[in-house]
Design a protein that fits this description.
seven-stranded parallel β-sheet; 12 helices; 14 strands; 19% strand; globular
């Protein structure tokens, strides 16, 4: 297939582009380099050194003989997007190109407005581009489990059957997003569902859990191909942040009680889920929702797992409970369904001590790059 990866320079997009290219697909990347600019804005960095995108794709071609074309531009610029779609005529459009940090969206009014405009308008442009230029193209859209919030009932995959006053219907599962970022994803889902209904768009919404890990088989082929690893209080996910904190002698910073429970998956499973969705496209007019995660853990569960492995590797670290900068339930029921991707062939990579150890050892090689003042939260929801 001809597949466009929007946001293909990022943490999920880059390994996905390499993996799909290796599988024989014709891959191109759209990216506006915003993620690199946000590092400059926040005075932060990836703990792993990241090569320029052009150097990355040149090295990939040198190693494999396979070309990944790149287009530097913004999905909010519709004329640019149209030109790429006219040239590539993709069979699938994988959409990773959104501002993906809840804390970033909560910094202030400017960042909230940017997140909403960047994410919602960019996605709407993609929908119009598919309608006008490649109407049979399958949109594979990265959503988030955070759209659902933490309801006191099991979370279904996108839809729920409701009986009310003697009548039944299957309706979109209720959304309770916890930040302006998560709200933008809900708006995306509504726009996609509407355009599937009225235009016949084919779309798969992947409500992804928190992704952990660093490398895939492809990114390990050469240092120029390595993936980014974030650790700061804005873009760093809890597990990766804990691992990095353990190597620099910092307490593992659990927000509040630590009972916040979420779905998690390995970056190796992220790339496989994209492949599964591409190889089994939604039907015309179908808005399909997959919950994309493999395991559920609380924040305190993750901290204890990291503490155990870190101590085995000679790092004495403690768990510190910080005042929670977010507005969220710290103890709650959480159970989500995740059967559809497994039924289509996903074989999960689970969070073992060895997986944590591998990330920890990679971090040790670059821990001189850690900017220590960035590991604590600096954004308050209140």
């Amino acid at each position: 297939m001809n597949i466009i990866i929007a946001g293909g320079d990022g943490f999920c997009g880059w390994p996905t582009a390499l993996y799909l290219s290796k599988q024989g697909h014709d891959v191109s990347i759209i990216d506006n380099m915003a993620r690199r600019k946000w590092d400059v804005e926040l005075h932060s960095n990836s703990i792993t050194p990241i090569a320029d995108l052009e150097d990355r794709v040149e090295k990939w071609k040198e190693l494999t003989g396979r070309e990944i074309r790149t287009y530097e531009g913004d999905l909010n610029h519709y004329d640019f997007l149209k030109q790429v779609l006219l040239k590539e005529k993709p069979d699938a459009f994988v959409h990773f190109a959104e501002q993906r940090s809840a804390p970033y969206s909560m910094i202030d009014r400017e960042h909230a407005v940017f997140t909403q405009m960047n994410n919602v308008v960019g996605n709407l442009n993609v929908l119009y581009g598919i309608k006008e230029i490649v109407p049979d193209c399958h949109l594979i859209k990265l959503g988030t489990m955070g759209e659902y919030g933490t309801p006191n009932i099991p979370i279904e995959e996108g839809y729920i059957e409701i009986e009310h006053k003697g009548r039944k219907d299957t309706l979109p599962y209720p959304k309770q997003p916890g930040s302006f970022y998560h709200l933008s994803k809900v708006h995306d889902s509504h726009n996609i569902m509407f355009t599937c209904k009225v235009w016949g768009i084919r779309a798969t919404d992947l409500n992804q859990g928190v992704v952990y890990g660093l490398e895939t088989e492809e990114t390990k082929m050469d240092p120029l191909l390595t993936n980014r690893l974030d650790y700061d209080g804005v873009f760093g996910t809890a597990l990766n942040r804990f691992i990095i904190q353990s190597t620099i002698g910092h307490d593992l910073t659990v927000y509040g009680k630590g009972g916040q429970t979420r779905g998690f998956l390995n970056i190796r499973d992220t790339v496989r889920c994209i492949e599964i969705a591409a190889e089994h496209p939604a039907d015309r007019g179908e808005f399909r929702v997959f919950n994309q995660f493999t395991e559920e853990f609380s924040v305190l569960d993750l901290a204890n797992k990291v503490k155990k492995v870190a101590q085995e590797e000679g790092f004495n670290t403690d768990i510190a409970h910080l005042e929670n900068p977010r507005v969220e339930l710290e103890e709650h029921y959480f159970h989500a369904e995740n059967t559809k991707l497994r039924e289509l062939g996903l074989e999960p990579h689970l969070l073992t001590d060895e997986v944590i150890r591998d990330i920890l050892k990679a971090v040790m090689n670059h821990k001189n790059r850690v900017i220590e003042e960035n590991v604590l939260p600096g954004v308050s929801w209140k």
